[in-house]
Specification:
Blueprint lengths: L18 H8 L6 E2 L11 H11 L11 H11 L3 E5 L1 H13 L5 E6 L4 H8 L3 E6 L8 H11 L3 E5 L11 H10 L3 E5 L20 E6 L12 E5 L1 H10 L7 H12 L5 H17 L4 E2 L5 E5 L5 H9 L3 E2 L1 E2 L10 E5 L3 H11 L3
Length: 353
């Protein structure tokens, strides 16, 4: 029966940071430092938890199919734009691709970066054109624009701050790309809350821009899987037609709306990120890419990333190898900013290798 499976799924798939956790447990660490998944280590505020508990009372009913309360909270927070929702950022990416990409259509991806753009495009029969970043992982806007024009790309995917390098692409470079392509630009802003750049104002000037955001990182709702997109008005109806019915559950929507309306609680983690990002860069014996996300990427040469992941896991510290990121070498690890005790543990062990 395996003949029924599409060839694109004979291998590959998204790579999770599970092996390191298994190593840490086998080494006797029941509570390791979890610094592999770019999570907010702090639980949501009491207001958010109260909203989620209240929503649980009605889970025998289908949720609001349009996520109206969540969208209202988004408008209150970000302005009067067109919003769409998805099961995490992944769901937004997948639905945008489902809306636009068919067999043989091309997308351009700025690599190395988040692997799901490729997986989602290939699932729709799309072809992925990689455009490598510069040696310092910054974006060459002209290269991206030229590649998109040459292959007649329907979508360009660009992550800023980039995962896994953390680079922040200046707004002027984003405008250069938008001005010079015929297709759409999907700007993945999963980590934008941790940097000083804000791209939302560009939505008023461009009809070919989609901004993807998530409630998983800054707002600490990773377990509830809430993503949203800011899209041009003309695109919203097409997205809705392609989307899975009842995409967000009632509890997720209620918690997300409450988090947006009371985000002062997240300031604590923001300050932790800024402090420890600098300490990671300055106190690690390995060179780091200075970025604007809630993680730092290190070049651990002459070790390989997988090797260092295993070494740290045996010391109770779980980090992410970057070997699975397309276009990146085998000598990098990515380390999330966790609670202070986790961060101290990482610095101690990375300096003892």
């Amino acid at each position: 029966m395996k003949r029924l499976i599409r060839p694109v799924y004979n291998a590959g798939g998204y790579v999770f940071a599970t092996k390191a956790a298994d190593i840490a447990r086998s080494a006797g660490y029941d509570m390791p430092a979890r610094l592999a998944s770019n999570e907010n280590p702090y639980p949501p505020s009491p207001d958010v938890l109260a909203a989620a508990r209240l929503a649980l009372r009605n889970v025998n009913r289908y949720p609001d199919e349009r996520s109206d309360e969540f969208r209202l909270a988004l408008k209150e927070k970000f302005g009067d734009f067109s919003f769409v929702s998805g099961v995490g950022m992944d769901g937004v990416i997948e639905t945008v691709i489902r809306t636009t990409i068919g067999d043989g259509d091309r997308i351009v991806v700025s690599t190395p970066t988040f692997s799901f753009y490729r997986l989602a495009a290939q699932a729709q029969g799309g072809e992925v054109i990689d455009v490598p970043r510069n040696d310092d992982f910054s974006v060459d806007a002209e290269k991206i624009s030229s590649a998109a024009s040459e292959c007649d790309a329907k979508i360009v995917f660009l992550c800023t701050p980039n995962n896994p390098s953390g680079n922040v692409t200046p707004g002027k470079d984003i405008e250069k790309i938008l001005d010079s392509i015929d297709g759409m630009l999907f700007l993945d802003n999963a980590y934008v809350d941790f940097c000083d750049e804000d791209y939302i104002s560009l939505m008023s000037d461009y009809e070919n821009l989609i901004i993807g955001r998530t409630m998983s990182k800054y707002y600490g709702l990773a377990g509830l899987r809430v993503g949203f997109g800011i899209v041009p008005g003309w695109f919203a109806d097409y997205y809705e037609r392609a989307q899975t019915p009842f995409v967000l559950n009632s509890v997720s929507m209620a918690a997300a709306a409450a988090a947006l309306r009371n985000d002062s609680y997240t300031v604590k983690y923001h300050s932790v990120v800024k402090e420890w990002r600098e300490r990671f860069i300055n106190e690690s014996p390995y060179p780091a890419v200075s970025g604007g996300a809630n993680f730092v990427m290190f070049d651990v040469s002459p070790y390989e990333g997988d090797e260092v992941v295993g070494m740290l896991a045996r010391k109770g510290v779980i980090v992410r190898s970057c070997a699975s990121f397309p276009g990146l070498g085998d000598n990098y690890i990515r380390v999330s900013i966790g609670e202070p005790w986790e961060n101290e543990m990482f610095l101690k062990e990375i300096n003892s290798l």
